[in-house]
Amino acid sequence: MKIVGLTGGIGSGKTTVAKMFKDLGVPIYIADDEAKKLMNESPVLRDEIIQLFGDSAYLNEGLNRPFIANIIFRDKTYLDKMNAIVHPKVSEHFDKWVLKQKAPYVIKEVAILFENGGHQSCDFVISVTAPKDLKIKRLLNRDDTTIEKIENIMKNQWSDEEKIKLSDFVVFNTVLEETYTQVLKIHKEILGNLKF
Ligand SMILES: CC(C)(COP(=O)(O)OP(=O)(O)OC[C@H]1O[C@@H](n2cnc3c(N)ncnc32)[C@H](O)[C@@H]1O)[C@@H](O)C(=O)NCCC(=O)NCCS
Ligand SMILES: Nc1ncnc2c1ncn2[C@@H]1O[C@H](COP(=O)(O)OP(=O)(O)OP(=O)(O)O)[C@@H](O)[C@H]1O
């Protein structure tokens, strides 16, 4: 079973691209979603997060995401501590998930991959990219957010240029139909590579 990392900056279109691979029959692991489930369901993670941020880290309905986002994307010390708590648990969960999949390859969609060395455990890496103004426009449309919040997150991620240098494939996600054509080509190339 080969592991393909799918990454990209905030709003680049990772989930959109991941869904295209899913439609081609590739098992998809969305690290962001699984991390949130784990943070809500694992008592160990919950305790560690409360120790770091205090009781306000959780509300009745679960993780207090705006509260945590407001801290970690403004203060890298907290971001690093949060990553150190959450990322190993997500990796463990992913490793168990992989064992249950039956396909030539799986995709792990993850916002933070190169930043924490996660690319080293991938057989291939795909980076999704789009112009910065387009990413911001899409995020303002999708979320109740601000340009300031988006830029704070961008500052905590590698630039597209740095990611592209280390990637095996790049998806330029501007026009959806063209994105799909690129996805199809990459899918065929990965499958072709696996035969040898
Ligand atoms: C801060 C949290 C609660 C905010 O949740 P919320 O639903 O509001 O936003 P979402 O998860 O969609 O994140 C928004 C964007 O922030 C970026 N982002 C998320 N985590 C990180 C991080 N650790 N470092 C840099 N950017 C990040 C991503 O581009 C993401 O698309 C959440 O992002 C979080 O818990 N992040 C830390 C844990 C983590 O690294 N998760 C990523 C998967 S392993
Ligand atoms: N090619 C495209 N054309 C038009 N809209 C798009 C395109 N790609 C993505 N979008 C829209 O832009 C928004 C962001 O895309 P998506 O959620 O896939 O990005 P993401 O990289 O997964 O985001 P995040 O970093 O926040 O997790 C979504 O509302 C999505 O529907």
Automatic annotation (TrEMBL):
**Cited SUPFAM superfamilies:** P-loop containing nucleoside triphosphate hydrolases
Q: Which reaction does it catalyse?
A: 3'-dephospho-CoA + ATP = ADP + CoA + H(+)
| UniProt keyword ATP-binding present | yes
Ligand binding (ATP): 11-16
Q: What is this protein's function per UniProt?
A: Catalyzes the phosphorylation of the 3'-hydroxyl group of dephosphocoenzyme A to form coenzyme A.
Stated family: Belongs to the CoaE family.
The name on file for this protein is Dephospho-CoA kinase
Q: What is the lineage of its organism?
A: Bacteria, Pseudomonadati, Bacteroidota, Flavobacteriia, Flavobacteriales
